[in-house]
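Figure 2 data, in text form.
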Amino acid sequence: MYKFSSLRKPSVYFILGGPGSGKGTQCELLSKNLKFVHLSAGQLLRDAITSNSQHKITIENCINNGVIVPSHVTINLLDKAIFDNLSSETFLIDGFPRNYENMQSWIELMDHKINFKSVIYIHCSRQNMILRIQERSKTSGRSDDNLQILEKRFITYQNDTQKIIDHYRNLNKLIEIDGDNSINIVQAQILELLNKTLIHS
């Protein structure tokens, strides 16, 4: 994995929620309001495709089939992105981990390098997620923003990601947010709960 300094141990929050729940939007706002760095696992994977990385074919096949990219590939990209960036000591990782094996691999490969804080879980109704993806698809240019792949992503989310959410809830490491509200209300809720967490941490 990527080299790191034993003297630097950045803080990390995972941001989880279904496709279209608003993870990316909320992370962008948090990065402005709190000066955290937003790392989108999905964007890092898409960038790896356009840059013709060694994992291009593997990533492309996974994205187009709505399945999860192998853990070591995504973690390697996140690892490099965290330790290349010296502008902040707190990182928001959007869209990872997506299954239990992702989480176990992260713990094994990254727990000693970072200070894990908690999971921010944006819960959103299926109807709203579909509407948001349909709207986003008009301008996003993303290959996975279509209903056929979206259905596969929903199945993956229900079968795999939900287990991660339950795990962190049991550890009292879950900040749960109602994502059906407006963007500004959701952001205000996250900031309020984060402040409480930071005060008591």
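Caption note: The chain has a mean pLDDT of 90.
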